[in-house]
Amino acid sequence: ISVERRPIGENHELLSREIGIVTRYHAPIKRIGWNNFSEADKEPLYELLKMKFNLDLSEPHVKGCLELLFSSSYKTFHHRCYTHYLKSGGGDSARNSPYEPLRDRPGYWTWLCDHFETEEFQKKSVIGKANRMKLAYVHKKGTKPFVALQHELSCDQISLYKECYCSDKGWASRDARQNYETMLQMQHENEQEGAIQLTEQQICEKVLGKAYGYIRGRGHGPKPNRRASSTSANTYQQMEEELASTEQTVAVQQNQLAV
Questions:
Q1: Is residue 17 part of a domain?
Q2: Of 103, 133, 163, at which residue does a domain stop?
Q3: What is the largest CA-CA distance in the chain?
Q4: CA distance readout (Å), 238 to 9, 112, 193, 229, 246
Q5: CA distance 18 to 169
Q6: Residue 253 lies in a domain
Q7: How far apart are CA 233 and CA 229, in angstroms?
């Protein structure tokens, strides 16, 4: 498990898959989301995982990784239940046709159907659909975490971006290709003598932007510290101003020598 709290290595897919199984068949369903789970709710789920995986929950990054994976898995499961609810016609028709993993837990399915019909859920569903419509493009690596892929490929962040948004069939979109070419250009300029040095993460952040503290297009990869990002931006601007001032001074001195 990486410091970014994402599973990596040869067994990362097995861990994610097992968490999905545990969620579907063992997790309490009468919760709005993972944040509504108590530690008493979570403990039996963790114990089921520890029967198959060597997990040290005293390590913050391990516990944090499981929290992220379970949260995502629980959200995905609820979404699949809702999709089944809609395909079954909603209302009583859906209530009489439970989603397969919940056939042996009819009380949970009834609770979910009631939940799907609440005004609060309907509002969130409309907002969620609108937000998904705004996505310019999506990556081509399915459910595999970017961090796990980078661990496998041992590549830099800009190369990883291409790996995730470009396949044999081409780029995910023109915007994705343009972003990649812009980052390559910035990386090339970064290598020129006298250029202001930017890290790969700063280049990605500058081109892709940030959303809720994450660099866009990088999944749960680098999560830049807000204070550090602000300091970095100020330092970058300051360096630009100093470089411009130095260039101006050199130009004046050259003119004086020419005279």
A1: yes
A2: 133
A3: 94
A4: 41, 55, 18, 14, 12
A5: 31
A6: no
A7: 6
**Residue 13 tokens, joined:** 């897919």
Q: How far apart are CA 226 and CA 42, in angstroms?
A: 30
Of 94, 219, 220, nearest to 164 by C-alpha is 219
90 and 113: one domain? Answer: yes
Tell which residue, 17, 12, 64, 70, has the closest CA to residue 223: 64
Q: Which domain holds residue 209?
A: 146-224
Asked whether 26 and 73 are in contact (CB, 8 A), the reply is no
SS (H, E, C) 188-202: HHHCCCCCCCCCHHH
Between helix 157-165 and helix 146-153 the angle, nearest 10°, is: 110
Query: pLDDT by residue for the chain (259 residues), tens digit each?
Result: 454 555 555 666 788 889 999 999 999 989 988 999 999 999 999 999 999 888 888 888 888 888 988 998 999 999 999 999 999 999 999 999 999 999 988 899 999 999 999 999 989 888 877 766 665 555 545 555 555 555 566 677 888 888 878 888 888 788 888 888 888 888 888 777 666 778 888 888 888 887 544 444 444 444 544 444 444 445 445 545 554 544 554 454 445 445 4
Domains of the chain: total: 2
Q: Which residues contact 70 (CB under 8 A, 6 or more apart)?
A: 19, 23, 27, 34, 42, 45
Which residue carries 């993972």 as its tokens? 34
Give domain status of residue 7, yes or no: no
Closest CA to 8 of 146, 157, 139: 146
| Together in a domain, 28 and 118 | yes
What pLDDT is stored for residue 153 in this prediction? 63
pTM, two decimals, is 0.55
